[in-house]
Design goal:
By secondary structure, the protein is of the alpha+beta class. The protein contains 17 helices and 16 strands. The longest helix is centred in the N-terminal third of the chain and has 23 residues.
């Protein structure tokens, strides 16, 4: 099927036209940067929150289209799987009581969605991968309605030329093959957007890359995939394999995967978009009507639709974003590393830690990326995904000394939380917000509890008490959902199921 789509819609001529348009977009972006056409407030933030729909047994409920049809708002939309929703929150300035406001708005929105879902015997669950999802439920007939999903699926499968293979070893081993990208729909994440200026973009992106491991260490919340216990934050390896468009022989040769940490620190936003064009063939080579160079020559601001479309099929964990609002272009860093949840309070605390830490690292006159090899940042990322709060991370001290190995919880408490507090102060965030939400991160470090840690402890206790795997996972999701509705942060939850 995928090969037929390629032959019918995306022949060689179509791909050549798209590639030419991509290069025109790069030229137009370069001109916009040279002409300093970017405006808008610095430190404007936005959130996207992906959510699972589960039934009373804790199993996925395939009713997102029905739930959306009942909603009187456009803030929610479908994600790839019929058991997932996405909430897009309005942008706001990173100042004042921004996090309390964000938490209140999130509670109201999720409460509304939960009431709508209840009409279809479903409830919302905020987690990175719903533990009760089975491999058998991941098939094309569970895609949300929309041609784009099926078209993307066809293109990835045609590019691979064979079935997708999952093979991840953690506490247990997961192996399986899939004839579509449907398995990817099991991943539900939160995305933090941070608008910045062209001059600040490289420092902001580098800071986000350096901060990623600490984010995951204290925010891991995806220990189970298809009923198997894997990594504390299993989404990155799972997502990489579930969306891998490379034939296995290309992967063996070192061709870069689309779910990508990156390979170097950068000195401009252009580096990332140029890498996208250089390294990744277009999956959806659809040209718009706009010629970006003609729009630029006439004094307008091009939307660079082909560059945006292509960028959306390169799944960087910190992704560059170009957008035009009200005729004005702007740039954002989209941070995509964390699972959703477990609660609104936990999600907003993760946001406060991320935004404060990135601001502090970007402002540092001796930035961490000049004192730490990029490969170390990637090693930290993988260690945090595997081990969560129990990871060991390398981090440089003052001056030019080599990075030192730290237990993640100690590094965050002693080094990174004070930096995050300074960063939030620099943004003008109210002290009450700063202290309340960073205290949640400190509490996780002090008790060494994350969403992933709580889930695995409760699961193992149920198994030790005689439950089989399926029953233990269902009971886990039910108890998780009950406690999440209290909005008490996960480090304060009781360990017993």
């Amino acid at each position: 099927m995928g090969e037929k789509v390629v032959a019918d819609r995306f022949d060689l001529a179509a791909r050549q036209r798209f590639r030419a348009r991509l290069h025109a977009c790069l030229d137009a972006l370069g001109a916009l940067l040279r002409e300093d056409r970017f405006e808008g407030p610095r430190d404007q933030i936005g959130l996207e929150v992906e959510l699972c729909l589960a039934d009373s047994d804790g199993s996925p409920r395939m009713v997102n289209d029905e739930v959306l049809s009942r909603m009187a708002t456009r803030d929610f939309q479908a994600e790839l799987g019929q058991f997932t929703l996405e909430l897009n929150m309005a942008p706001r300035r990173l100042s004042g009581r921004v996090f309390d406001d964000l938490a209140e708005e999130l509670r109201i929105a999720l409460g509304y969605a939960d009431r709508m879902a209840a009409e279809f015997d479903a409830r919302l669950v905020m987690t990175g991968v719903l533990p009760t999802i089975t491999a058998e439920q991941m098939a094309p007939d569970t895609f949300s309605p929309g041609d784009r999903y099926m078209l993307l699926n066809d293109q990835i499968m045609a590019s691979r030329g064979e079935a997708i293979t999952l093979d991840i070893t953690g506490a247990e081993r997961l192996r399986g093959t899939f004839e579509s990208i449907a398995a990817e729909s099991a991943c539900t994440s939160v995305q933090f957007h941070l608008q910045t200026t062209p001059e600040r973009f490289a420092d902001t992106w580098n800071a986000a890359q350096a901060a990623t491991a600490a984010q995951i260490a204290v925010g891991a919340n995806a220990p189970f995939v298809f009923g198997r216990e894997l990594w504390h934050e299993s989404r990155p390896p799972f997502f990489l394999q579930a969306t891998d468009s490379r034939p296995p022989e290309h992967a063996a040769q070192g061709v870069r995967p689309r779910a990508w940490f990156g390979e170097r620190w950068i000195d401009s936003v252009s580096c990332l978009f140029e890498e996208n064009v250089r390294y990744f063939p277009a999956l959806l080579p659809l040209c718009g009507e706009e010629d970006p160079l003609e729009v630029l020559a006439s004094g307008g601001v091009p939307r660079l639709s082909e560059l945006i479309l292509h960028n959306g099929t390169v799944y960087r964990w910190n992704r560059p974003v170009y957008a035009v609002t009200g005729g004005v272009p702007h740039l954002r860093v989209e941070n995509r590393v964390l699972s959703t949840g477990p609660t609104v309070t936990d999600t907003v605390a993760n946001a406060a830690f991320y935004y404060g830490l990135v601001r502090a690292l970007a402002d540092d006159p001796e930035p961490v990326w000049r004192r730490m090899p990029f490969a170390t940042a990637e090693e930290n990322f993988l260690a945090a995904c595997r081990h969560g709060i129990d990871a060991e991370l390398s981090w440089p001290g003052p001056g030019a000394g080599a990075p030192k190995a730290w237990p993640a919880a100690e590094l965050v408490r002693r080094q990174l939380l004070p930096l995050a507090a300074d960063g939030l102060d620099a943004c003008g965030v109210a002290a009450a917000d700063r202290d309340h939400y960073l205290a949640v991160i400190e509490g996780r470090c002090r008790r060494r509890v994350t969403g992933a840690g709580w889930q695995t402890r409760v699961y193992h206790q149920a198994v030790a008490d005689g439950a089989d795997r399926t029953s233990a996972l269902r009971d886990l999701v039910r108890r998780y959902s009950e406690l999440a509705r209290s909005d008490a942060p996960v480090h304060s939850w009781p360990d017993e199921g």
